[in-house]
Design goal:
This protein has about 260 residues and is of the alpha+beta class. The chain has two domains: about 110 residues, Helix Hairpins (Orthogonal Bundle), CATH 1.10.287; about 120 residues, Orthogonal Bundle (Helix Hairpins), CATH 1.10.287. The protein contains six helices and five strands; from the N terminus they run βααααββαββα. The chain is rod-shaped, with a radius of gyration of 41 Å.
């Protein structure tokens, strides 16, 4: 298989210099496009992250406020029992007042029985109140601990949210700067080559130029033919990966790492 090449009409020396220059510009242009794609993705995902952060904290807050809700329920139950006792005591006072008005022993005994039942009921409710107060004390301790933990998580949530919001605010600035750089580079590239790059990039998920090292294309991660790899290292021609059809260039990653 013969290597695919992009041809232009210059003298030999001019063509070599021009192609080397165009390749460097294409690599820079690809860097800009990769940055802009990343910014666009983050611009979409950052609000989603903030929304998830808020929902997660709201769910955590709700779970941590169960003891507080329980304490409020016990408090209301205690208030209801106090009202019950007050009403029963009022009825007892009224019943004792009626004792002075009865005319026979049968009515007298009936009222005494009514008072006895009411006082017994009052005693049961007082026992319930004591139990409620004990439970309220225990729940109050747990609720206070929950509040301390929740306060810490709230601070963490707010800090993380501020970081994400700051990232969003900086995205527009970063995007504009890289877009401006892209336009400057684009204006330096031959129109035909630029059109080819755009076409290749759009067909390959936004990646039109990739490096090759040890005969492996960094775009499709497949091996290119040995002859093409040899020419890629020596020839000034712009070449295309036969597998993914991206523009390729040789990069010695050992030298790059050092």
């Amino acid at each position: 298989m013969h290597p695919q090449k992009v041809h232009f009409f210059y003298s030999a020396k001019e063509r070599e210099n021009k192609l080397n220059e165009d390749l460097l510009l294409l690599i820079e242009l690809q860097e800009c496009d990769s940055k802009l794609m990343a910014f666009s993705t983050r611009k979409k995902t950052l609000p989603e992250k903030i929304d998830k952060l808020d929902k997660d904290f709201a769910a955590y807050k709700e779970s941590m406020e169960q003891n507080k809700k329980k304490h409020e329920e016990l408090k209301n139950a205690h208030a209801d029992r106090e009202k019950d006792i007050k009403k029963i005591n009022e009825n007892i006072v009224k019943a004792k007042g009626r004792l002075l008005e009865v005319k026979n022993n049968k009515e007298y005994q009936a009222i005494l029985k009514e008072i006895e039942v009411a006082e017994a009921s009052c005693g049961d409710i007082e026992t319930q109140i004591i139990s409620l107060l004990d439970e309220m004390d225990n729940i109050s301790v747990l609720a206070n601990k929950d509040d301390e933990i929740l306060s810490q998580h709230k601070q963490k949530h707010e800090d993380e949210r501020k970081i994400l919001e700051a990232d969003i605010n900086s995205l527009d600035t970063d995007f504009s700067q890289w877009e401006q750089k892209r336009n400057e580079i684009k204006n330096k590239i031959n129109g035909g080559l630029l059109e080819k790059y755009e076409r290749i990039k759009n067909r390959n998920g936004g990646i039109g130029v990739v490096s090759v090292w040890k005969a492996v294309c960094n775009g499709c991660h497949m091996n290119i033919p040995p002859q093409l790899y040899n020419e890629l290292q020596k020839s000034p021609e712009l070449m295309i990966c036969p597998n993914c059809n991206r523009i390729i260039y040789y990069q010695n990653k050992d030298n790059a790492a050092s």
